[in-house]
Amino acid sequence: MSNMTRDFFIGLSNNQLLNSQAKKWGFVLGADKFVAGTTIPSVMETVKNLNAKGISCTLDNLGEFVASRAEAEQAKDKIITLLETIHQENVACHLSVKLTQLGLDIDQDFCMANVREILAKAKEYAIFVNIDMEDYVHYEATMAALKTLHKDYDNVGTVVQSYLLQAGDDLSDLKGIRVRIVKGAYKESADVAYQEQAAIDRNFIKLAEERLLEGTFTSIGTHDHHIINELKTFIQEQGIPNDQFEFQMLYGFRNDLQQKLANEGYHFCTYIPFGDDWFGYFMRRLAERPQNVNIILKDALYTEDNKLKKGPVIGGAAAVSALLIWRFRSKRGKKA
Ligand SMILES: Cc1cc2nc3c(=O)[nH]c(=O)nc-3n(C[C@H](O)[C@H](O)[C@H](O)COP(=O)(O)OP(=O)(O)OC[C@H]3O[C@@H](n4cnc5c(N)ncnc54)[C@H](O)[C@@H]3O)c2cc1C
């Protein structure tokens, strides 16, 4: 995908008005392909179905632009209810949380208190909690929080993004802490991040190989079969035991490959986002892959028997217009 179109969707993901409107629309534009329902009971059904296929899960209670203490506390309470449900239902499932949802932009101490409450409850139930990595603005604060929290809780880990120039150094600092390696989903400047796909991919493999040799449990978070195949060969050659790592992919992406890896005997974990605050997450996924846009556009405009959909008028129209503008711009881009 060209940088211009990627930027366009990243721009939409950061649009607060569209994010807040989308909560009222419910799922439109085929968002339900990538977001597993809005409620805890509905997402639990998805978890149980995947567990039955030999796949574990990590749940992400979606939430963008949390601006008040009340919203952050509401998110924390929902995550604690989620932990209780995971425990009661005895499913193979851990949590992924974002510090901004728990108040990082409001007050760091308040945020830390919320995370500590979550980690204490999770520890009681022996559930792992991953702190997702957000954009670079929040990077230092997230890493600092992780290191402080890990002194008291061994059930917490985080994410290292291979597009960051400093990823290698930071990963070395995280020896003994569980980490997920990903490429990175946000738009970052050349001052802090590689801009070329080949450099990001090379760094991903380098980081993953270092971690696999180092021995702390590592999640390999990618849909990229080139990287997966290269790492599978490395794992075999080096005799890395299967219980030292897992592959992770996002819900709704490459379902066949997810199942294939699980069937081959690898630990596999599906990252499942849920909740009504789906817009930003969904736009970041469109930014990553043009094919997603084609699927979604067809899904948004037509019913299964090829009739034009009526749908939620304002939300549908806004989002479809956004996609149509993107199509127009990308066609112009191809000609230029
Ligand atoms: C489990 C998980 C958790 C994540 N957590 C974070 C996080 O905390 N912070 C963060 O910044 N980012 C996170 N991300 C997003 C990540 O940073 C990337 O933006 C995203 O995964 C896209 O990169 P990729 O490695 O999947 O492959 P891409 O670079 O998107 O694709 C590389 C190649 O793989 C193949 N491919 C990819 N997708 C498909 C497909 N659907 N069908 C067929 N072929 C395909 C194609 O050949 C493509 O050219 C996470 C991703 C995953 C999977």
From TrEMBL:
Query: Catalyses which reaction?
Result: L-proline + a quinone = (S)-1-pyrroline-5-carboxylate + a quinol + H(+)
Part of which pathway?
Amino-acid degradation; L-proline degradation into L-glutamate; L-glutamate from L-proline: step 1/2
- Recite the UniProt keywords alphabetically: FAD, Flavoprotein, Nucleotide-binding, Oxidoreductase, Proline metabolism
- Recorded E.C. number(s)? 1.5.5.2
UniProt domain Proline dehydrogenase: residue ranges? 44-292
CC cofactor: FAD
- Keyword match Nucleotide-binding: yes
Q: Does the keyword Flavoprotein apply?
A: yes
Task: List, alphabetically, the InterPro entries matched.
Answer: FAD-linked_oxidoreductase-like, PRODH_bac_arc, Proline_DH_dom, Proline_oxidase
Kindly name one Pfam family recorded for this protein.
Pro_dh
Supply the SUPFAM superfamilies for this chain. Answer: FAD-linked oxidoreductase (SSF51730)
Q: Output this protein's name.
A: proline dehydrogenase
Q: Which organism is it from?
A: Lentibacillus kimchii
